[in-house]
Design a protein that fits this description.
8 helices, single chain, alpha+beta, nine-stranded mixed β-sheet, 27% helix, eight-stranded antiparallel β-sheet
């Protein structure tokens, strides 16, 4: 359950939790045409708080809206400021932030171009998405029977609300069969991403991740790629098959919610030693040091408040 907070930002002002409601004829509720982001705020070691890569998340929100031809009612600068305002209004020093742009009530049907576009920002306390045990020792994943969107079926570089029905079905299937997460293949049968995370594998000392052919350009993914290069870890974006993943030395997921989560098993096949591997551990530690303000080299990724 999402923990109730005092205030939610809606269309330029803070409103009480109970007042943040929409009409049943909200267009996005019927057709899924909306865009959103997931952002995290961390408490830093000096007692302050910092939002991780706020600018990049806001930019991706606007990119998503542009891709699907939604004009947002606020500027990028206003949205970034509203994120901080929402956190302050709820005395939240650490948590998850969800900006959401949606098409409101008015015309129905697929061609409703004059309905108002609304923008809301909610922040709430949210711990580790795949569990503390998963962070330490890894999760169990299943190759999904559901295929990741093809680039000519959906705009795969946008975080569009309706696209996530595909991910929900994959996640439900995996959970129903006793796994923690689903791994989705692209339309050609190569590993794409998990239901809501990007994926990396380690083989023979090198780090590999699928190219941005049909996967979302994850902001945590990008951060891990830079950290790996800075640490001299060979890195390549290339396609790989599920059987390569089965025989990887290590594998892990990245995402705002999942952060850096090891994969210990795929389809009942142990990955590597069946626990968090040394490369994963190194990158995971580096990531958490950065978001907690312990590494000045990456200070530009933190918006302190």
């Amino acid at each position: 359950m999402v923990e109730k907070v005092r205030k939610i930002w809606m269309d330029g002002k803070l409103v009480d939790w109970e007042a943040a409601q929409v009409h049943v004829l909200t267009h996005t509720l019927h057709y899924g045409m909306g865009v959103f982001e997931g952002i995290r705020c961390y408490r830093t070691e000096d007692g302050q708080s910092a939002v991780f890569r706020l600018k990049e998340h806001v930019d991706r929100l606007f990119d998503s809206a542009h891709i699907v031809q939604m004009t947002l009612p606020s500027t990028r600068e206003d949205v970034a400021s509203a994120v901080l305002e929402t956190l302050r209004a709820n005395d939240m020093r650490e948590g998850y932030i969800r900006p959401l742009a949606f098409i409101g009530e008015g015309a129905m049907g697929l061609y409703a171009t004059d309905n108002p576009v609304h923008l809301t920002i909610v922040a709430w306390p949210w711990g580790t998405y795949l569990g503390e045990e998963g962070l330490r020792n890894g999760i169990r994943a299943k190759i999904s029977s559901f295929t990741r969107h093809h680039v000519n079926v959906a705009m795969t570089k946008a975080k569009v609300c309706g696209y996530y029905v595909n991910s929900i079905m994959a996640k439900r299937e995996a959970m129903a069969e006793g796994y923690d997460e689903a791994i989705m293949l692209d339309a050609d049968g190569f590993v794409a991403e998990a239901s809501g995370e990007n994926l990396f594998m380690v083989r023979d000392g090198g780090l590999f991740t699928p190219p941005l052919t049909s996967v979302l350009p994850g902001i945590t993914r990008h951060a891990i790629m830079r950290i790996a290069r800075d640490k001299g870890i060979p890195l390549e974006e290339r396609r790989f098959s599920r059987d390569e993943l089965y025989t990887a030395d290590e594998a892990f997921l990245t995402g705002t919610a999942a952060e850096v989560t090891p994969i210990r098993e795929v389809d009942r096949r142990r990955v590597g030693e069946g626990t968090r591997g040394p490369v994963t551990h190194l990158l995971q530690d580096a990531f958490f040091n950065i978001v907690k303000g312990k590494d000045a080299k990456y200070e530009e990724w933190l918006t302190r408040f």
